Structure formats: C-alpha cells, structure tokens
Amino acid sequence: MIIDLENISVTLGRQKVLDGVGVQFDGGSMGLLGPNGAGKTTLLKTLLGFLTPETGGGRVLDCDVRTQQLALRQKVGYMPENDCHIPGMNAVTFVAFAGQLTGMKPTDAMQRAHEILYYAGLGEARYRNVETYSTGMKQRIKLAQALVHDPELIFLDEPTNGLDPKGRIEMLELIRDISGTKGIHVVLSSHLLPDVEWVCRDALVIHKGRGVAAGRIEDLKATPGTMFECRIKGSAEGFRSRLEDLGCQVREGDDEILKIRMMDGLGSQALLRVARDQGIQIRHLVPLKQSLEEVFMQVIGGPHADS
Amino acid sequence: MPIHDLSYRHWSGEWTSHPYRWWVISRQGIGLLARKKGFLLLMVLAGLPFLVRAVMLYLSTVLGRVGLLNPTPQFFEQFLTQQNFFTFIIAIYAGAGLIANDLKVNALQIYLSKPITRRDYLIGKLGVVTFFLALTTLVPGLLLFLLAVIFESNVAFVEQNFWVVGSIVAYSLAIVFTNALTVLALSSLTKSSRFAGIFFAAVFFFSQILYGILSEIFRTTRVAWISLPMNLELVGNFFFGTTSRIRSPSWLSALVILGLMLASAWIVHRRVQAVEVVR
Predict the structure, then answer these.
(1) Which of A49, A59, A159, B207 is most buried per CB count within 10 Å?
(2) Nearest to B275 among A51, A78, A119 (CB)
(3) Rg, C-alpha atoms of chain A
(4) In this structure, is the dihedral angle defined by the CA atoms of residues B264, B270, B275 and B278, taken in order, positive or negative?
C-alpha cells in the first residue's frame, strides 16, 4: 500500500479542516476531488508531514506520517498550488538547489536539473530567471523541482491552475506520462473533474473535511442499478409514479428527458412494461453511464451543497 | 533497433547526510550575495578599518613611529566597537530579505517540502548573515591579534594578552548573533525586505535616540540598557575588562542582549511555518 491513512483529523485555528478522513491508495494515480475549501490541500500537507493530525495516523511509502516526516519527504515530491520559487535564481540553479535540499550532491543535482528541465519542457528557458517566467512556465518549474530527486510518489496540488487550454493539455499529458510510464505514483489534487478523470485511475472525494467517496473512478461511475435516458409521448405523471412505486428513481432533465435509475434486478423490459401499462409511447431510450461530475454532485449533495 | 526513452531517467546516486543540509542553504545564500557588486564593495569598505589598524600596528610596534598606539586590550575592543557600524549595514543588506523574500514568493513550501526541518532552514539562513558579519568582526579581530603577536615578536606579550583572544571571540560573537538574530526575526515578520531593513534601522537608531533623550531627562547614563549599540559596547567592556564612561551595569546589558537574542529566536521559529494558520 502506498498510502494507508485512517481517521485523520486536523484543526487549523478554530476550524476543523479534516474530520476523520481515511485514504487507501495502492499505487498508480489518485485524484483528490472536492470543492474549494473541502480540505484537499490540508490533506496533502498532512501527507507531507507539514501538519500533525490530532487523531488517526498511518503510513505513506512505509513512513509513519507522525514520526518519520523527514524520511517521507525524501521519497516524495510536492508541487504546491501557489506560485512559488526561490528568489534570485535562474531555472537550472533553482531546480539544482531543490535537488541539493533533498540531499543530492551539487554536481549530481546540476546534471539532473538539466535533464528534468528538458523533460518538463523548459530546456530552452533554463537559464532565464524564474521571476520572468509566464504562469505556464512557473507551473512546469514547480513540477520540475518536485521531480528532481526522482521521488517514488508525487503530490500535485492544482497543477493546471492558470493554464491556457493548450498548456493544460500538455501538463496533463506530462502527468499521465509520469504515472503511466515512469513508474512514479501520483496524487493529484484538483477541483477540475475532467483533469482527474483524464489522469487518474482512483479518486477520493472530500467534502467539508470528510471523505465522502473513494475507489476506482470506473467503479464510482458505475451506478447501483441500471440507468436510462428516456423521452416519452403522453402523460409522464402516471409513468413516473408507477416507476417510483417499483423503487426506481426518476429525475427530469432538459428537453423533457427523464433520467431513470432502475431498481436492482429491473431492466429495460420492466420499463417498457410500465410504459405499455400506462399507455404511453417511448420515443427515446438509451442506457446511461454516470459521469464523474454526476457522481461528484451526488456525493457532495447537489450543486448548492456549499451554500 | 530498440528505441530508448531518454526523456526521464530514474536517479540512483548517493545522498548526502542530513546533519549538513543547512549548509546547502547557507552556501546558496552566501553565493547569491557574493555575486552582488554593491555588497562586495560594502565588504571591502568594512575591511578598511582592519587595514588601517594593521598599518598602525606595524608603525607602532616594528617602526616605533606611533608612540601612543599600543596593542592593548582596548585597541582590539575599540576596533570591534567601530565595526558595529558596518555590521549594522551588512546585517540589513544580507539579512533583511533572507526570510522576507522567501515569504513573499512562498518559497517556504519549497524548502520545507524537502527533507529539511525548520531548524535546518533557520540555521541555514543564520549561517548566511553570521558568515558575513564574522568576516567583518571575528576574522579581522583575530588577524589583528595575530599581527600584533608577529610584530611584537615577544613571548611576554603573548603571556600577558593570551586571554584577549577569548575576548575577541566572545565580543565578536555577541555582535554577530545579536545583529543576525534580530534582523532575521524582523525579516520573518514581513514580506518586504525594505520594511525589515527599516525596522532593523529603527531598533538600532531609535533605541539610541531614546537613550539620548532619557539620559538627558534623568541626567544619568544608567538608562543605557535601552540602547542596542550601548548594550553591545558595555558587553564589550565586560569581555575586555575595560572601564566605561557609561554607568549602567554590564550584566544588565548582557541580560538585555541575551533576552533580545532569545526573543528573536522565538519569533523567527514561530513565523517560519510550512502552513500558515489564520486564527
């Protein structure tokens, strides 16, 4: 197990930011999902050992998050959300310095900095002062400094923030490459669901400091019971109430389209039977798969859950 | 023909040991400052009093042309007290931005996400300031003593004055650490190196001005413990065993200096956090 945390609670000031969160991650790539302020960054900082949890604990890469924080940080890389660099340095010096801070010798760190900057797409700009970089370049250099010491696990906090569409795709491709072909485990924190869906295999959804859903994204998207999108001709009332009597959930979408989650064991035949009994025509019927967004909205309790 | 992916290679070199990780930060800070021409000029200027005193020492001891000047303990004490002005300027130049600039660009997250502790970070930053301050106090002070020994070529001189080495070290360290810790503490309180420099100058000058006002009002020098430069001077008097024109006790100044150092260390330790907690 790469990350195995149980019942993590963290309070910052008077605010309980994490409340009994558990994380189980067996490697590959995991997305931390949640609205702004849900506790994603706090969880990352707890995983890094910046914050000591009040309750709970666990291990990351076989290091105890409470007692082996230095050993843990030797093995992981962290790309912070905010703009950050070390003033007065060009890119190659900055990344080499980051390598030395993790314990690399100066010559090794410098050599590695050149390699990593090429990998991150900053090879041509590596002698420029970091302060003159664009937002996209700053995101890349944050990734480069996190990778310089060849970590086993990398934490990426909102890595596509402020990027234009092309830059975003390039960054996501880079992250996919890191986790897919370079053998580095990735934990990606984002409130952008498509980013997580594109890059990650697993997801942990956090809401108001609690873990509300976790597992493989494919499993999360799989609905309990089959789901259909259906358009009918005739009165929907009777059709709807009959389906609800059978234990199905019926939701009205745009253009008079009904989204129907069937009760376990019931399929399209049951739906057609109800339509026949109610004397209505079915004009459109397709099986539906939930998007990650729908799963997300469902687990955090709808679009206005925060307000 | 196999195609090798050279875009990312795993690294399997040797790691350096953790106890010296602070030195990476000090070395980097020293290197950055040493590349600034203005700062190098300042360091050269700070070295001029040493050259002047070395020449005076030579004229006095070898050629015997400056009869009034003798390499007494006061000679070394006065040199270090004079250097206070340069240590003040260098502390501002080298130290005011050390933490403030890191806070401004969120660099603490970079530092502390690596396998270093807050203590490593602070010792590393302290190392930058103390290095340059020691170059203007401790190093020339000891060199002056060495020159005095060479120029005197007299065993009796060494026998009588060997304790001065300890005094030079102690007084220099008091100057270095008082300035370094204070400027770092002030640097950690703001994201602007300019403000940190102004605060430090305020501590230095306003305490002196306040002392001047209070000593005029009460017609006594017993209030010298209020002034940072005066406290350092009194501590110097204590280390060199010299008498002072100021009537404030040296132990009180030593306590004030110690308190200032401890308070500065506490502030800087509290302010340097990987996570900023808004209470």
Answers:
(1) A159
(2) A51
(3) 24
(4) negative
Q: How many angstroms separate the CA atoms of A120 and A92, rounded?
A: 12
* Whether B30 contacts B131, CB under 8 Å: yes
Among B42, B66, B68, smallest CA distance to B55 is for B66
B220-to-A242, B211, B212, B224 alpha-carbon distances in Å: 99, 10, 10, 9
Q: Name the nearest CA neighbour of A12 among A56, A43, A47, A48.
A: A43
Domain membership of residue B136 (yes or no) is yes
Rounded (5°) CA angle B122-B126-B127:
115
Are A182 and B104 an interchain contact pair (Cβ–Cβ within 8 Å)? no
SS3 state at B173: helix
Q: E strands within A168-255?
A: 185-190, 202-207, 210-216, 227-233, 249-252
Q: How many CB pairs under 8 A join A and B?
A: 115
Is the Cβ–Cβ distance between B274 and A50 less than 8 Å? yes
What single-letter DSSP state applies at residue A123? G
DSSP secondary structure code for residue B14 in this structure:
P
pLDDT tens-digit readout, B182-229? 999 999 999 999 999 999 999 989 999 999 999 999 888 888 899 999
Based on the number of CB atoms within 10 Å of its own CB, is A224 exposed (0-12), middle (13-18) or buried (19 or more)? exposed
Counted domains in chain B: 1
Q: Could you tell me how many helices (H) and strands (E) chain B has, helices first?
A: 12, 0
> Which domains occur in chain A, in start order?
3-218 (3.40.50.300), 227-288 (3.30.70.100)
Six-digit token pair at B218? 């009460």
B171 in any annotated domain: yes
CA B178 to chain centroid, in Å, comes to: 7
Domain that holds residue B169: 20-271
User: Which region, left, alpha or beta, applies to residue B72 given φ > 0 means left and ψ of -120 to 50 means alpha?
Assistant: beta
- The interface residues of chain B toward chain A in range 111-150, judged by CB-CB distance below 8 A, are 111-117
A149-195: pLDDT as tens digits: 999 999 999 999 888 999 999 999 999 999 988 889 999 998 888 89
Give Cα B272 distance to the centre of its chain.
20
For residue B176, what is the enclosing H or E element?
helix B163-188
CB contact under 8 A, A119 and B116: no
- DSSP string spanning A9-33? EEEETTEEEEEEEEEEE-SSEEEEE
Total count of residues recorded for chain B: 279
Q: What ipTM did this prediction achieve? A: 0.86
B 21-40 near A (Cβ less than 8 A): 21, 24-25, 28, 32
The confidence score (pLDDT) of residue B155 equals 85
Within a domain: residue B3? no
Please list, in sequence order, all residues whose beta carbon lies within 8 angstroms of the beta carbon of residue A277, skipping any fewer than 6 positions away. A242
Residue A224 main-chain phi, psi, to 5 deg: -75, 105
Nearest to A82 by CA among B113, B99, B60, B183: B113
Give residue A243's identity as a one-letter amino acid code.
L
Judge whether B205 lies within some domain: yes
Q: Token match 């290197």: residue? A: B31
Q: Please answer yes or no on whether B106 and A80 come within 8 Å at the CB atom.
A: yes
